[in-house]
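WARN  no MSA supplied for this record, continuing single-sequence
INFO  ligand: 4'-deoxy-4'-aminopyridoxal-5'-phosphate
INFO  echoing inputs
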Amino acid sequence: MTIESLIRPNILKLKPYASARHEFTGKGEVFLDANENPFDTGVNRYPDPLQEKLKSAIGRLKNIPTDQIFLGNGSDEAIDLILRIFCVPGRDEIMVLPPTYGMYQVSADIADVQVKKVLLQADFQPDLPSIRNNLGPHAKVIFICSPNNPTGNLIRREAIEEILEFFGGIVVVDEAYTDFCPEATLLPLLEKYENLIVMQTLSKAWGMAAIRLGMAFASPLLISYFNKVKAPYNINILTQRFALERLSKEGEMKAQVQSIRQQKTWLTRELESLNEVLQVYPSDSNFLLVKVRHAEALYGYLSAQGVVVRNRSREPLCENCLRITIGTETENRTLLEKMNLFQNQAPV
Ligand code: PMP
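INFO  complex generated
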């Protein structure tokens, strides 16, 4: 199967919008092409539609050429574009491996694309035979989240490679939490598999959730389709500037990751010592999936006390589970204090 045969016919044929800043590539001095206000407000000019400067910085950090990078308004934009590039509404299908990140399903529902669900196994690893059996003729994309949200674990590299080998469609590996276990990234596999898309984000370890900057890495051919379909100026200039500035401080991010990892080890031990806690699952990310005795009641109690965690107990394989982000030491101590108060008054 060729990549082109996976692209929706209307996208293959699409003549994309040529923005003013895109069309002119020389060295201009007087810009009368984009109907902007000529008076300098600091932001009166449209931003670079392909974000070349920012992509160069990201490319240097990740060791990836800029033509293999797409930048989106959060990785949620990349998810949405993937659906629009590959999936014919009302006909095509994606596959997800629950429990997993909820936006794959929501974006598919919006795009009127069917979703096949193949549950992870009890160890939160993919069920390869079942994935194979459930891939119909219209399956276009499989979304794999690694480290997985909400379970926290990495998906085995060998399992993902097997899927890349036997599935003729697109395999998206969502590495939103990769900076908490950077050695496990699948970016080097891009050279080997033309059907692989790796997504990452500045929203987690990099500490920039509010600027909305997500990344997709893939072959130059696949990235050219993202560029065709995306809104012309999808990344605003404030985001581009802020990201560039902070990406130059990789050491700061790494120190914060180190501190979060230490807190995770400590918090895991403290949680395990509570009678209310039945299990803390191993985590390769910056959150813990925690099985407790009374998830609903504990969630309600913590909320009333101003400590907000995520109740995942209605997700498959996550019965009575809360997902708890690793905070600062002070925040983590507050959580433990409230959980202690709860267990001292909860029915056994
Ligand atoms: N993927 C996963 C697995 C996530 O958990 C999240 C955020 N919760 C995202 C993607 C979305 O990230 P962004 O902020 O880049 O849209």
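The longest strand covers residues 139-145.
INFO  checksum written, moving to next record
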